Amino acid sequence: EHRYWHPETTAAMYNGAGGVDIGGRRYRVEVTVIDDGLDARRSVAATRRLCCDGIRYIIGPNVEHTISSVTPVAERYGSMLIPYSFTRSHYLPPHENAVLGQIAGYQAWPAIFGHMRDHLNVDSISILAPKSPEGEMQKNEALTAAKRHGLRVLSADNAYGAALVDSAAALDRVAKEGPDLIVFSNLAPAD
Questions:
Q1: Model's pTM, two decimal places?
Q2: Does 183 score more than 60 pLDDT?
Q3: Is a pLDDT exceeding 80 seen at residue 87?
């Protein structure tokens, strides 16, 4: 699937150059893909399997409840996680085995909102987020950035459950409000 292209392409680039140089030794990069279906139990089992197979760098998990579940497993095995969770506590002591795998919304939204307001005539915004602690946090950070940039907030309380039907229904409700921009915060791949 397309979501695996990035790590496989990066591995091919490093391997084509003789591997990754670590301390004067070259190591080939091998990509192993396991789909946890955004399920915490499957994510824990997958992380345990990867760790037992000797894999020490894991890209993922993708959502808050899966990163929270796998962190103790990765710590026990000394593996490094590169998740997509924006909850800062995952990257603070005593959890020192994780690095954020992408730019966080609170880092990007100010620049994005400012550009869209100044160059694309975006004046109004609606924010959607899942019913989860991380979804709530990201919604609040997007809301803060939108207000700071003078965007008119039409809605920010349309939360949805973790299912395609729920997110589609919430999107339909928000689209009827007619915002210039809809922020679909913390959207998981299965949504």
A1: 0.60
A2: yes
A3: no
CB 160 within 8 A of CB 131: yes
Of 55, 59, 85, 46, the C-alpha closest to 188 is 85
Q: Could you tell me what percent of the chain has a pLDDT over 90?
A: 42
Phi, psi of 39 (to 5 degrees): -105, 125
Cβ count near 169 (within 10 Å): 14
Structure tokens at 28: 């080939």
| CA gyration radius, the chain | 19
Does the pLDDT at position 71 exceed 90?
Answer: yes
Q: Which amino acid is at 66?
A: T
- Going by C-alpha positions, the residue among 166, 134, 141 that lies closest to residue 67 is 134
Residue type, 186: N
**Residues counted in the chain:** 191
Contact 158, 128 (CB under 8 A): yes
**3-state SS, residue 19:** coil
